[in-house]
């Protein structure tokens, strides 16, 4: 493979805390050299990309992506998801196991990853189900799926309500040092809920679940982590109360990571407004005080990973009354632009915004990418920090257009995406 | 009784354009518009008591009743109201047909819209369904109950019943009792009765009153004795057994013991207090037949009669608004 030099860039590398001028030399899909400071002399015969002073960062790693493939391809295929990812500066995606059939055996993990390789766009990995067919009762083949390349294990949006099952899953996974991820949501308190309990939900007549449902379940999950010694990811934390629980667990020395969806960092429950189903999310949108707490948790490192929570839903599933609409939103293509609003509007340092999108997930999942370092995969994103972008859902590359950012102006535009040294956008 | 010609003249004089293109929430009204609708409805009450009950105010207009939830009472009330105004009325049995085949609400709306109705009256089990429909059709939409959100025509007919019983609702203390959490009637009545100057109290067990109901501008009570003291009106709500996701009250007999309205509890309100219920009633659960059937205290039959007149006022005003816009 030929070599490429990206010169005249503003390097942003959360892994090494470097933010400043520099250049990258890429060869055979990997970073051959990182030059900090003024531009370097480039050997003859190398393709040169002039970054024009724009930002160059590790490609984004999105660990929570739903597709329809296999089983519901009209929603989203691995190809359309990969194209969306490339257009959004996301170089690695991890597919959720809630397909049909579910990703609960090594053959399914193998299928997803082979398909990703054949598409030759972005890196595609699978998360395996923690229980067979995500039924919350029978443990799935965690060891074999781990061997086949599954990056972590989760039942996705389904909560493993049976504490004995989760205890066994955690104990068993510890033998493989496998990461288990769980949604913190008490299934009884959240049953049938489409909003967060409170004045807004009662005024709109929507069934709500109390925010405490998240903390209650997290307390249980963390008690089991403490007992079993499992590696654990709190998947989609969304309330201030649960953040306090998480902080206490960290202080006790538990190895617990946490992720948050970009939607819960950008929107609050008021956005539901006039029953707009693009804001029908799971977990539901929370009050502004929770959103602010989540932003602070990203700033101080309590939250390790920001995800797009990409959940495609076609028009027929969204064009329904609020309570009947499918939950979730697409987000791969808008992930970086939306996250940069945390810098522009909420005052987060650029590296603090990028860390949970790159180095955070890479170190959690043991990936080589997510860093601008000699020998690392040349997975990169080039973006204009200040360029305005008006999101037009109809033009998104995802097969489903359910974007809550539709019509919004964001600030920060993806200019190019490289995966393994090859430009894919 | 006023003679026939005078009633028709009165109706014409009092006809007002509806203040909003749709009637989705009690909040679509303002006090002058509500009073205008009540005056018009009063004229319709007189008209409805005549032997000949046919007008041509909506001649040539088409009203479609689309009820995704069963409701004989409200559906019939709207149908009679529209027919007495001279409209062509179609009542769609949707639960049995297209929806069962997987058609979405919006598909249904688009299909109906293509048939060019003037007014769609919708009831649906989901909150916000009427608002969603209103965005997809070119005609006026009347919310006949959406989930646990609102039932604004019920609020207007309750207001009409109260005004006829008390003269003015301003200054009345009205207790809404029972299953507040699941009640669209309560939500619409809180908005409209407060807007018209009444003091509204909410009474029910803590599991059936939303935790933030005190922010609705109402006093909240969990004890009937405390809550009913000084009340002019006791509005009982149907215990929505079908909407309850779990055991929100231990049993209906315990519920009746503490929150069901009987003579003994009614005595805690003011001596002249009147009783209301949006129907259908669970007798012996939220209300005792002894109270419900006593015409000296119960306004329940009046509410049914006022329902037709109030809905005639709403439909005629909406048609009048759309006529003015043409």
From TrEMBL, chain A:
It is an enzyme of class 3 (hydrolase). CDD domains: DHOase_IIa. One of its GO terms (cellular component) is cytoplasm. GO terms for molecular function: allantoinase activity; dihydroorotase activity; metal ion binding. Residues 53-239 form the Dihydroorotase catalytic domain. Pfam families: Amidohydro_1, DHOase. This is Dihydroorotase.
Automatic annotation (TrEMBL), chain B:
It catalyses: carbamoyl phosphate + L-aspartate = N-carbamoyl-L-aspartate + phosphate + H(+). Pathway: Pyrimidine metabolism; UMP biosynthesis via de novo pathway; (S)-dihydroorotate from bicarbonate: step 2/3. Residues 22-163 form the Aspartate/ornithine carbamoyltransferase carbamoyl-P binding domain. One of its GO terms (molecular function) is amino acid binding. GO terms for biological process: 'de novo' pyrimidine nucleobase biosynthetic process; 'de novo' UMP biosynthetic process; amino acid metabolic process. Pfam families: OTCace, OTCace_N. Carbamoyl phosphate binds at residues 73-74, 123, 151, 154, 279-280. The keyword Methyltransferase does not apply. InterPro entries: Asp/Orn_carbamoyltranf_P-bd, Asp/Orn_carbamoylTrfase, Asp/Orn_carbamoylTrfase_sf, Asp_carbamoyltransf, Asp_carbamoyltransf_Asp/Orn-bd. It comes from the Bacteria. Residues 171-317 form the Aspartate/ornithine carbamoyltransferase Asp/Orn-binding domain. It is an enzyme of class 2 (transferase). Keywords: Pyrimidine biosynthesis, Transferase. Its EC number is 2.1.3.2. GO terms for cellular component: cytosol. SUPFAM superfamilies: Aspartate/ornithine carbamoyltransferase (SSF53671). L-aspartate binds at residues 101, 184, 238. Catalyzes the condensation of carbamoyl phosphate and aspartate to form carbamoyl aspartate and inorganic phosphate, the committed step in the de novo pyrimidine nucleotide biosynthesis pathway. Belongs to the aspartate/ornithine carbamoyltransferase superfamily. ATCase family. Heterododecamer (2C3:3R2) of six catalytic PyrB chains organized as two trimers (C3), and six regulatory PyrI chains organized as three dimers (R2). This is Aspartate carbamoyltransferase. It comes from Brevundimonas goettingensis. The lineage of its organism: Bacteria, Pseudomonadati, Pseudomonadota, Alphaproteobacteria, Caulobacterales. The gene is pyrB.
């Amino acid at each position: 493979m030929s070599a490429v030099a990206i010169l005249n860039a503003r390097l942003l590398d959360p892994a090494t805390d470097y933010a400043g001028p520099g250049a990258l030399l890429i060869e055979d899909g990997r970073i051959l050299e990182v030059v900090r400071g003024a531009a370097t002399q480039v050997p003859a015969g190398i393709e040169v990309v002039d970054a024009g002073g724009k930002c160059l960062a590790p490609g984004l790693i999105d660990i929570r992506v739903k597709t329809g493939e296999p089983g519901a391809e009209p929603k989203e295929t691995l190809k359309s998801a990969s194209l969306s990812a490339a257009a959004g500066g996301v170089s690695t995606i991890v597919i959720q196991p809630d397909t049909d059939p579910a990703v609960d055996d090594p053959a399914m993990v193998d299928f997803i990853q082979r398909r990703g390789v054949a598409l030759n766009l972005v890196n595609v990995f699978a998360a395996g189900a923690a229980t067979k067919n995500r039924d919350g009762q029978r443990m799935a083949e965690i060891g074999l799926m781990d061997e086949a390349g599954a990056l972590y294990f989760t039942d996705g949006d389904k909560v493993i309500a049976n504490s004995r099952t989760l205890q066994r899953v955690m104990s068993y996974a510890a033998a493989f040092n496998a990461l288990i991820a769980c949604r913190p949501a008490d299934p009884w308190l959240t049953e049938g809920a489409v909003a967060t309990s409170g004045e807004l939900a009662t005024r709109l007549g929507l069934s709500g679940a109390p925010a405490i449902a998240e903390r209650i379940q997290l307390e249980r999950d963390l008690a089991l982590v403490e007992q079993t010694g499992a590696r654990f990811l709190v998947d989609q934390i969304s309330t201030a109360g649960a953040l306090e629980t998480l902080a206490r667990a960290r202080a006790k020395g538990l190895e617990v990571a946490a992720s948050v969806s970009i939607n819960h960092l950008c929107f609050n429950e008021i956005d539901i407004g006039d029953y707009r189903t693009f804001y029908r999310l799971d977990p539901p949108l929370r009050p502004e005080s929770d959103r602010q707490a989540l932003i602070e948790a990203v700033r101080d490192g309590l939250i390790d990973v920001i995800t797009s929570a990409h959940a495609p839903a076609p028009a027929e599933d969204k064009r329904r009354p609020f309570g009947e609409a499918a939950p979730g939103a697409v987000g791969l293509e808008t992930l970086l632009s939306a996250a940069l609003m945390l810098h522009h509007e909420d005052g987060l340092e650029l590296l603090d915004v990028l860390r949970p999108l790159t180095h955070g997930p890479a170190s959690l999942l043991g990936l080589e990418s997510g860093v601008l370092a000699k020998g690392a995969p040349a997975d990169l994103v080039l973006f204009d920090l200040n360029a305005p972008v008006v999101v037009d859902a109809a033009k998104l590359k995802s097969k489903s257009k359910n974007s809550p950012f539709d019509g919004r102006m964001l600030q920060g535009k993806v200019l190019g995406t490289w995966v393994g040294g090859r430009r894919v956008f | 009784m006023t003679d026939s010609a005078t009633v028709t003249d009165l109706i014409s004089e009092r006809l007002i354009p509806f203040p909003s293109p749709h009637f989705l929430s009690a909040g679509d009204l303002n006090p002058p518009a509500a009073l205008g609708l009540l005056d018009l409805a009063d004229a319709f009450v007189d008209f409805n008591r005549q032997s000949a009950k046919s007008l041509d105010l909506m001649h040539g207009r088409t009203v479609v009743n689309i009820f995704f939830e069963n409701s004989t009472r409200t559906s019939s009330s709207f149908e009679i109201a529209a027919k007495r105004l001279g409209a062509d009325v179609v009542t769609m049995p949707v639960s049995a047909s297209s929806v069962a085949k997987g058609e979405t609400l919006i598909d249904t709306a688009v299909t109906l819209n293509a048939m060019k109705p003037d007014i769609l009256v919708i009831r649906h089990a989901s909150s916000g369904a009427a608002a969603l429909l209103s965005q997809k059709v070119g005609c006026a939409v009347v919310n006949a109950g959406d989930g646990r959100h609102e039932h604004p025509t019920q609020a207007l007919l309750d207001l009409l019943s109260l005004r006829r019983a008390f003269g003015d609702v301003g200054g009345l203390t009205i207790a809404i009792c029972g299953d507040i959490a699941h009640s669209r009637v309560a939500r619409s009545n809180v908005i409209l009765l407060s807007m018209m100057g009444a003091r509204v109290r909410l009474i029910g067990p803590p599991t059936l009153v939303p935790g933030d109901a005190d922010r609705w501008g109402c006093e909240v009570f969990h004890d009937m004795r405390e809550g009913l003291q000084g009340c002019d009106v006791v509005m009982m709500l149907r215990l929505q057994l079908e909407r309850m996701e779990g055991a929100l009250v231990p049993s209906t007999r315990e519920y009746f013991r503490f929150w069901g309205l009987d003579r003994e509890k009614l005595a805690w309100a003011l001596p002249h207090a009147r009783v209301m219920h949006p129907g259908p009633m669970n007798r012996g659960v939220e209300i005792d037949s002894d109270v419900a059937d006593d015409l000296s205290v119960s306004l329940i039959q009046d509410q049914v009669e006022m329902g037709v007149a109030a809905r005639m006022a709403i439909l005629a005003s909406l048609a009048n608004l759309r006529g003015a816009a043409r």
